């Protein structure tokens, strides 16, 4: 599946600016990680883009709608990763793609939240600052910190380096994402 095809699916189900920005930011981070790990960067980007595609239109069925659609299209690897992007769904983590999506989803959203409360946005944001905010349970209270840690553990990356990787990607696209 191409990014263009994926974008058509995303925009057919998602209209909200915030969720579209989340999809785009996770897409960019996943694409960068795909390149970093020597994987299919477009496949990784599509996975990031579509992981919450059905959330706005079908919140009670998320992620089953998008997973079924992808499976019907023969995109099993992407479908499986999306079906596993929340640990409480009890889906096994079989590939690096599965683990990376879990590791990037919540944390990317959290880092965007950090950017939104800083006058300079992502510019100058450090892992130390993000980690400090992670300890504040009242900040971005809906972000599940245990999901972030499980993702980091499964992907076998250092939390500080992982945060810096995401910051770097977001910084490259700060104008588009309106965070800098």
TrEMBL record:
Pfam families: HD
Molecular-function annotations in GO: hydrolase activity
Residue intervals of the HD domain: 20-93
Database matches in InterPro entries: HD_domain
Annotated transmembrane regions: none
Annotated keywords: Hydrolase
Record-given protein name: Metal dependent phosphohydrolase
């Amino acid at each position: 599946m191409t990014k263009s095809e994926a974008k058509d699916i995303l925009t057919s189900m998602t209209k909200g600016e915030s969720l579209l920005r989340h999809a785009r930011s996770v897409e960019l981070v996943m694409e960068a990680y795909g390149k970093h790990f020597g994987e299919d960067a477009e496949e990784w980007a599509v996975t990031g883009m579509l992981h919450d595609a059905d959330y706005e239109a079908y919140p009670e069925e998320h992620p089953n709608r998008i997973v079924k659609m992808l499976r019907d299209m023969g995109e099993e690897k992407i479908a499986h990763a999306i079906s596993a992007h929340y640990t409480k769904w009890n889906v096994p983590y079989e590939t690096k793609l599965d683990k990376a999506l879990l590791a990037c989803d919540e944390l990317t959203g959290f880092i965007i939240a950090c950017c939104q409360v800083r006058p300079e946005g992502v510019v100058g944001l450090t892992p130390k600052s993000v980690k400090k905010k992670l300890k504040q349970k009242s900040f971005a209270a809906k972000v599940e910190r245990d999901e972030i840690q499980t993702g980091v553990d499964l992907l076998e990356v250092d939390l500080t380096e992982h945060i810096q990787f995401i910051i770097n990607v977001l910084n490259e696209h700060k104008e588009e994402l309106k965070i800098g």
